[in-house]
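Hi F.,

I've been meaning to write this up properly since the lab meeting, where we talked about keeping a consistent format for the predictions we share between groups. The idea is simple: the sequence comes first, exactly as it goes in, then the structure tokens exactly as they come out, then a line or two of notes. No screenshots and no reformatting. I'm using this chain as the first example so we have something concrete to point to.
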Amino acid sequence: MKFMLMMHGSRAGFEALAKWKPEEFHAHIRFMLDLNAKLTSSGELVLAEGLDVPHNVKVVRAEAANAPIVSDGPFAETKEFLVGFWIVDCTSAQRAHEIAAMASVAPGPGGKPLAIPIEVRQVMSAPPIDG
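Output, unedited:
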């Protein structure tokens, strides 16, 4: 079963990140790289990526024959942003929750676990469309 584990962050969290000591930031990144290595070793990691900062995000909309409209986003009222994600292939939802819990305790300032919210959603395949 495949699951997408989505790490969310807030604007305040992004602003606070700028105040972390370099060694705290490096410990956080090392934690994530070690988690990815463990998941690779167990055969459960399909893909993991961090995402660019919110102020670089663009929203694209298009109608059938018209050129796409590209605008800045997300909008100021957005309180949370997708920071990064993992696609894991594991035996159960329970195992996906265990992996999400591992990611949630990534260290922050002073090495304290951040309790990062990790959204877990099963990756579904498309239904058959044959006749």
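Notes:
The radius of gyration is 17 Å.
The chain has one domain: 2-54+78-122.

If this format works for you, I'll send the rest the same way.

G.
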